[in-house]
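In this section we walk through a basic example: taking a raw amino acid sequence and producing a predicted 3D structure, encoded as discrete structure tokens. The instruction is simple. Fold the sequence below.
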Amino acid sequence: MTTYALGDIQGCYDELLRLLDRLRFDPTHDRLWLVGDLVNRGPDSLATLRFIKGLGEHALTVLGNHDLHLLALAADNPKRTRESSLDPVLRAPDRDELLHWLRGRPLMHFDERKGFALIHAGLPPQWDLSTALSCAREVEARLRGPDYSDYFQTMYGNEPARWSDALTGPARLRFITNCFIRLRYCHADGTLALKEKGPPGSQTRPGCRPWFTLPDRATRDTRILFGHWSTLGYAVGHNTWALDTGCVWRGRLTAIPVRREGPGEPVSIPCS
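The resulting token sequence is shown next.
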């Protein structure tokens, strides 16, 4: 059995099937780890959701910003503009089943046997592995609870920009969410720089750095697989592996085998 970690798919269903064929993925034995953003902007978010859900325990995905965006649309968040690429999901006869399944996905996964963590975007430097997992569970509990639609009404926004154990309510959940689904850059004190989106070296705010390069990051000894950052591309360093290679932007879709001794070489296909 082989576990493969894949970068952001964003509805590029045909490319997903081509990559799995290239990997000789066997859905009865192998397993997929997905860094989130299964949907949005690509040509077939509906088929992608149905396929990943249909793999059952052989696919594990964390939630990305586009996945939560879809759920916010379904929860009628008045601040969100509907995007046409998501309309087929929202109109599908199995919409409720698919969205219920998506709400049940985690924000973070950690495999003790393999020694790897899986997230979509980033972690602030103050969080160690235990804190990160605990914070993820807080948001997951709200997403899976009966009042989940209330969460989506207050999810969006850039504040608070810095972690404190004293944060409570929607502000606490918003900070946690922003780290897991939006973070690329932050400052050494953990202040998030959410408006910075370009490749390393393009940032305009003095002192902000890619989150994974901060020397005092509490998770520096944890091996982390993540996506979200298409302008970064495939990158390895600081005990992290970045897997978003911009498939939806006519880049590539990338996967790596995940083993306890370390990931194998990346396998990717071009995207049209």
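Looking at the output, two observations stand out. The chain has one domain: 3-270. Residues 129-144 form the longest helix (16 residues). In the next section we compare this with other chains.
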